[in-house]
Design a protein that fits this description.
mainly alpha; Arc Repressor Mutant, subunit A; 4 strands
Length: 149
């Protein structure tokens, strides 16, 4: 197996974020947590991932502060996994990937899921990147600058 290169010290925020959450199983676990899954067995059933990989990824997500463990409400010895504030901040990332996948990864007649607003049952509007004044931005409208300390 090829050892993954760490990006923990990279000066690029995208590289550092991918170092934390770039593993596909980890991001799918976070997606499932947004969908209300909290128990190990439910993650395993929904993802079809091996117990070893799931246990490793859940442990990493807890250590990184993206998930936290909590006792289940039925007073059993089991624990469940809940998103932390840091984990909840990944919501726009998951929505962006979902919307990109909806637009570019399915044929026009192919069935797929769609994210809806619970208040009205309608699909969520496409994410937009906006300037501080509210103007919609595309990649050509932006550039990266290093922060000076």
């Amino acid at each position: 197996m090829v050892k993954r290169t760490s990006m923990a010290d990279a000066d690029c925020p995208v590289a550092r974020a991918l170092d934390v959450i770039g593993d596909w199983w980890s991001l799918l676990i976070v997606r499932d947590a947004f969908d209300g899954i909290r128990r190990f067995g439910d993650f395993q059933k929904n993802l079809g991932v091996s117990k070893g990989i799931l246990a490793s990824r859940l442990r990493d997500l807890v250590e990184l502060g993206i998930l936290a463990t909590a006792p289940v409400s039925d007073d059993s010895a089991y624990q469940e996994y809940v998103l932390t504030e840091k984990g909840d901040d990944l919501f726009p990332v998951v929505v962006g990937l979902r919307q990109w996948g909806e637009a570019h990864c399915f044929g026009s007649t192919e069935r797929h899921s769609v994210l809806v607003d619970n208040a009205n049952g309608r699909p969520v509007a496409p994410l937009e990147v906006k300037s501080r004044s509210g103007r919609q931005l595309r990649s050509v409208d932006t550039s990266v600058r290093k922060v000076k300390h």
